[in-house]
Write a structure and sequence with these properties.
Layout lengths: L2 H27 L7 H5 L2 H32 L5 H33 L2 H16 L4 H18 L1
Helix pairs in contact: 1-4, 3-4, 3-5, 4-5, 4-6
């Protein structure tokens, strides 16, 4: 698989995750799914637990998605090109999935119980998702680091 095919695949997944989040928002905004539906079903204790859980998952998973991506690829430097590209695809997909999961969780909690903290956490996750858009420069940079590490080991 060459770098253009990898980037195209990652970009499709990245854009799909943003479009899926927009579709969920549109379904809430148009009234297809009722707003504040969870707020009337849950007690105040469960509402509080949901609020805290959403914020804690956001605080834990966003840095994990961003820093874990760079750390794991830096530690794996020196692999064969094919192996490294497979690892890059795997880690990129994991990062996109984690950010997408955080974004969806916060959208559902914001619309489900009308908690503004989830709105801000969701916007933070969306910004991080935009930040993690797969580019040719990033892929080539990691490929170059891998090549240099492999040559340094010889």
């Amino acid at each position: 698989m060459n770098s253009n095919e990898i980037l195209r695949s990652l970009r499709i997944n990245h854009i799909f995750s943003i479009l899926a989040a927009v579709i969920v928002i549109v379904t809430f905004e148009t009234g297809v799914i009722a707003r504040d539906a969870l707020g009337s079903l849950l007690s105040q204790t469960w509402t509080y637990i949901l609020q805290v859980s959403a914020v804690m998952l956001t605080v834990l998973l966003i840095p994990l998605a961003v820093k874990g991506f760079t750390t794991s690829l830096s530690k794996a430097a020196g692999m064969g090109d094919e192996e490294f590209l497979k690892l890059f695809i795997k880690k990129s997909m994991q990062r996109i999935f984690l950010l997408f999961a955080v974004l969806l969780l916060n959208i559902f909690i914001y619309y489900g119980i009308r908690y503004n903290g989830s709105l801000y956490c969701g916007l933070f996750a969306l910004g991080t998702l935009f930040y993690s858009y797969p580019t040719k420069m990033v892929l080539n940079g990691y490929i170059e680091k891998n090549r240099l590490a492999r040559e340094g080991k010889k």
